[in-house]
Amino acid sequence: MIDCYNRIYIMERDMARVVSIRHLILGLLIQQSMSGYDIKRSLKSLSWLIDSPSYGSIYSALRALREDGLVTIQETPCQDKSPRKVYTIEDAGRQALREWVGQPAAPDISLKTFVMHLILAGSFSHTGLIAHLQQRRSQVAAHHTTLKQIAETVDGTTDSGQRLTFDYGLTLATAELAWLDRMLEQSSQQPLPVEVVQGDGVALAA
Amino acid sequence: MIDCYNRIYIMERDMARVVSIRHLILGLLIQQSMSGYDIKRSLKSLSWLIDSPSYGSIYSALRALREDGLVTIQETPCQDKSPRKVYTIEDAGRQALREWVGQPAAPDISLKTFVMHLILAGSFSHTGLIAHLQQRRSQVAAHHTTLKQIAETVDGTTDSGQRLTFDYGLTLATAELAWLDRMLEQSSQQPLPVEVVQGDGVALAA
DNA sequence: CGTATCATGTAACTAGTTACATGATTCA
DNA sequence: TGAATCATGTAACTAGTTACATGATACG
Q: For residue B76, what are the β-bridge partners?
């Protein structure tokens, strides 16, 4: 894992907590059992914020999760309708999610990744979630600062692409910082009621 | 392209204007010639908003663009330093970008895709850009409405993931709508000074 | 002189998309 | 009765990532 110059490569993404749609599905199923179609729809409601995954990836992720024994299927017939295939998370799935949550977070995550983490917020411990919000805060704050500088120098240029992009970024960064501060303040006064993922009756803190 | 039920499939992504890193690079190079490293860095400044592409994808996109004759390389030696490879867009590249810009836009784009379009704003015609902003506005507005409804029903639940996600989404949607309205208003009063991509002296409107 | 960062790539892999395929249910 | 949407998948592909590889330059 170290090159001839003894510099450390890797470990950036490799070991870091990266959300795949597998984790996302696990996170949704921990809240409640649902079908592949339901999963698609529930992610669709955030489609303007994140590129929501296609059926192809959802169903194949579901198959993989089933093969690994992390979820199970129940064919639930509703009256005389054709039965829906409802997926339920198993203890192994909860365990896997807990392990994943315990991994170190990547320092530099995108908005999409942050949203995906947010969806999984219920799977984090209170402190884990706070840490995550704080990390995002410092990241956005840093970009806010540089963006502000760039926006000023770029203000007079004819390049509308650059101007619009930086202005847009600045607007969102400002709004996001305010939100993060509000959340962080709220959580210091009264803990956000997060439920820690439970395996077999034992709550684990991250 | 039509199935046995005569329903139209496809055309959703297929024909729609989808930004790949190839277009993004072309859009950056139309503003000014730069090296692969420069491209990486200029996209890195938006890394909190979008997952910025890796060197691997940038350099291979650059190779593909070169093979297609859309860009050329100049090895520019700076003094006695080892020369940097600066990529410059060719007329064929401008033409390709113009064609891409002329395609219909996908109705349902994510924030990431929107940012990528914004970076390419200079390659759109004035009306094209306005249309794009309006489309995004109506999309975000729709999601804002549904999000607001969901947020209310979800407000009392213990599920912090859902609450946080929807609250976050709502905050960003509000900020984005305000920004879009401001831009749209500005552009109706005095046109945003966008430059239409020019091929051989003839400006094309979308 | 050693570390950081500038700078450019490639090979192997994998995650996810697109298009294909099918059929049931709902509703105007 | 036809269209929309509910619902579940698969095969082929492709875009993009990770890890590998190398070397120059800047700076303290």
A: B84
Q: How many whole angstroms separate alpha carbon A164 and alpha carbon A150?
A: 12
Position of tokens 């379009």? B117
**Amino acid at site A118:** L
**C-beta atoms of A112 and B115 within 8 A:** no
Number of domains in chain B: 2
For B68, list phi and psi in degrees, rounded to 5: -85, 0
Q: Choose, out of B138, B155, B160, B176, the residue to mutate when testing the contact with A (most A CBs < 10 Å).
A: B160
Contacting residues for A85 by C-beta, under 8 A, at least 6 apart: A35, A36, A73, A74, A75
- The DSSP 8-state label assigned to residue B137 in this structure reads H
Task: Quote the DSSP letter at residue A68.
Answer: T
The parent domain of residue B12 ranges over 1-92
Q: Which of A92, A113, A134 is the last residue of a domain?
A: A92
Answer whether residue B99 is part of any domain. no
Nucleic strand C near CB of residue A57 (< 7 Å): yes
User: Is the pLDDT higher at B100 or at A91?
Assistant: A91
Is A161 part of a structural domain of the chain?
Answer: yes
User: Are residue B142 and residue B81 in the same domain, yes or no?
Assistant: no
What are the pLDDT digits (tens) for B125-176? 899 899 999 999 999 999 898 888 877 777 766 677 888 999 999 999 999 9
pLDDT of residue A3: 30
Residue A124 above 80 pLDDT?
Answer: yes
3 state DSSP class of B77: coil
> pTM here?
0.85
Pair (B2, B84) in one structural domain: yes
Query: In this structure, are A191 and A139 located in the same domain?
Result: yes
